[in-house]
Amino acid sequence: MTEEGRYDVIVVGGGVAGSLVARHLGDQGRRVLVLEAGARAGDQEQGHREAGERFLAASAKVPGSPYSPHEAIPWPEVSDLTGVDSGGYRSEGYLVQRGTLPYASGYVRVNGGTGNIWTGLTPRMLPEDFDTEAFGYGRSWPLTYADLEPYYRAAEFAIGVSADVDEQRGAVGLPFPEGYVFPMRGLPPSRVDTVMAARLDGRRVKEPGVEELVELRVAGTPQGRNGVPNPRYGGGAGFEPVGAYGRPEPGSRCGGSASCIPHCPSHAKYTPLKTQARWAPSVTLQDRAVVSLILVDPAGRATGVEYLTYPQTGGVQQSRQAGTVRRTVHADVVVLAAHAIENAKLLLLSGIGNRSGQVGRNLMDHPVLLTWGLLPEQVGPYRGPGSTSGLEGFRAGPARRLRAPFRIEIGNWGWVWAKGSVDTDVVELMRASGPHRPGLRGRELRQAVADRVGRQFTLQFEMEQSADPANRVTLDPRHRDLLGLPRPVVTYGLSTHVKEGIAAAKAVSDQIFTLLGAEDHTSFEAANWPGRFEHRGRTYGYRGAGHAAGTHIMGAGPTTSVVDQWQRCWDHPGLYAVGCGSMPSVATSNPTLTMAALALRSAERIEADLAERDRPITVTANRAFGAAS
Amino acid sequence: MEEFLGLSSRLTGFDIDELREDDLAPELLGVVLEQVGAETYRRLAAAPDARDEELVAVAEALIRLWYTGSWQGSAGGGGPFLVSPRAYAGALVWRAIGGRAPGTSAPGFGSWAEPAEAAGAGAGRRR
């Protein structure tokens, strides 16, 4: 075992939350060590190029396709799951799934984390989202929208958000300080968006069991990707977009490559690598460092971590025999920022922080109902960002009492999330439907493909899933990875509240399709829908949005929650667990921005802790000792 | 090669000139010959509209290859595979809708707001 130097702060994980915390503390001159399980590209440009090449060469363009998993650090991929015709699902791969329904999302363990492959949507949570107990479900936050609001602005700066503040105020109902504008103007809506807006704006739809009608309005979604800077930003200071490798690049704009998940060729989308490029020299990243234990002293204070290394090439087994893999490192503050599931795994593995019994529990995601069809006209799908607009009217209000609220994303990429690549459309059209009926050929086929693919759209209903202690991550010593660390065991399901939300969403979808004059092609065949269930006599399927949350839940006290409002572990001074795992509720907004805001807020708190440690009071104490001697 | 282009044009609905644009034919023909053998390929080329079950399957595999850049998977096991990034970028499905394969080009800021290009049969030229 090797002992290394001492740091002020160890950050476990170089994703969105970890990179932002490290940046803030490095800027204060703190010595920060970031331990990243994945490999860091030696040359950033080469790393970016190779990620793009792997994506383009991949047969299945799944979210993890730009990266080759190292055998030492497996990760879950959406393709680990398949539906079974007789009902239920089959799962293979890193996560051991034991729920009635599957946890249907993946993540990646590479430098920059899942923040490399995110879509880049950055809506804020609504003020009422912080207190769902008022609607009779879920868990409320120990802080309010007003508490977090300044950090939302800080996160919008750090990520570089393009959005229209008036639209966010008017169509979404968010409060902003007087005069605030986003760093960059809202991105142009897609053709799909404008075609829909023309037919939907101002129309009203009815939900079963809800008296009040909901008025539809297509509204732009805030985006963590570069657009046109707003000269009014920062009181007239303007904003300089951040381009490749963290460089200021005033002209950087989304180029419309339509591959945000999983790879933005033009560097317009925010990734944590941009933040890392701006770290102060006092921040060090150690890659291929897999934390295996959080160290605490007898008083319970976190003192450091133990981690395992693995060779860049060559087998894990050989390197274990060489005996060079286990190291320890110490710091005053340890920050877990490894992903909701990995953070829970580390706490469970270390046997700490669990006075409440809530570690690993309350696993949440956004279960997503997809409905898809054909518009009457050509709209040119598969262009631009994955989603540029949404319908926001089902996120708020008293209907939350009856069913989970949802945000409707308008999908710009055809049916890819629902049905997989366009290959399926081509195959359906050309395939013989019987031995004497060959499928389409020649001009007929070409026309049919254009007609089928060119009119595609998808509605993506992101459902709020509330905290349920039964949805959880545990460890089972019988299931281990090659480094000998237990693999996460996931037990997951959907509550009646969520299922009611999905049913309501489908009813809303039906009315929207009618208003659009769209042909509905939604159907949930077993094989393609591992997340599939019956509710009130109808069959529904869901996908996972990749928004794991809740596993080290934040709350008002140590007996019911794992972390406090600063994401400090109640049980262990000096130990923070940051990320979506802290969220008491996931609301209906894509959670990255909220995670970033929370991380920046925690970074301030950590700096305050360290400043407290460094205060001259120590000197006074020494003097006192001196006087006594 | 001319024979392959003729066969491909007949099956896909794209003119021979259109199929030449990305110079994918040699690579795709190589895949076909490797996967189904020269003899079967010859039979298909001689009778592109044959109702013979085996030849229909090969014709469909060839169409899929041109339209998506992927081979559907071999009889000896193994699922569909992408032939190459070039074949992905040049896949005809994108030309059929007047678009580009995701991740292969950057048509420019705001390009996604424009109306879709007139797509469909006969409108195969790229922007």
Automatic annotation (TrEMBL), chain A:
Residues 8-51 form the FAD dependent oxidoreductase domain. Residues 470-599 form the Glucose-methanol-choline oxidoreductase C-terminal domain. InterPro entries: FAD-dep_OxRdtase (IPR006076), FAD/NAD-bd_sf (IPR036188), GMC_OxRdtase_N (IPR000172), GMC_OxRtase_C (IPR007867), P2Ox-like (IPR051473). Keywords: FAD, Flavoprotein, Oxidoreductase. It holds the Pfam family GMC_oxred_C. The keyword Oxidoreductase applies. The keyword Oxidoreductase applies. Transmembrane segments: none annotated. Residues 282-368 form the Glucose-methanol-choline oxidoreductase N-terminal domain. Its cofactor is FAD. It comes from the Bacteria. Belongs to the GMC oxidoreductase family. This is Choline dehydrogenase-like flavoprotein.
UniProtKB/TrEMBL annotation, chain B:
Residues 104-127 are annotated as: Disordered. This is Head-to-tail adaptor. It comes from Streptomyces clavifer. The lineage of its organism: Bacteria, Bacillati, Actinomycetota, Actinomycetes, Kitasatosporales.
